[in-house]
Amino acid sequence: MQQGTGFLTPRQRRLAWLGFLLAAVQAPVAAKLVSDSSWLFSLVVALMVATVILADDTMRRQPVNASSD
């Protein structure tokens, strides 16, 4: 049984992980340094990127439909 491919290339996947980590680290730092709630934007971006990574993971784990004639 073969696994499917996701919609992200390996390079895009690495960049998505890097973006997720940077946004996830930046949010609490900004919350500490900034008095307004603009740090929530970083949190929302991190959650959106995490959703894309999870969707790509789900597509990769689905088996490829084998054509049996």
TrEMBL record:
<keyword id="KW-0812">Transmembrane</keyword>
<protein>
    <submittedName>
        <fullName>Uncharacterized protein</fullName>
    </submittedName>
</protein>
<feature type="transmembrane region" description="Helical">
    <location>
        <begin position="41"/>
        <end position="59"/>
    </location>
</feature>
<keyword id="KW-1133">Transmembrane helix</keyword>
<keyword id="KW-0472">Membrane</keyword>
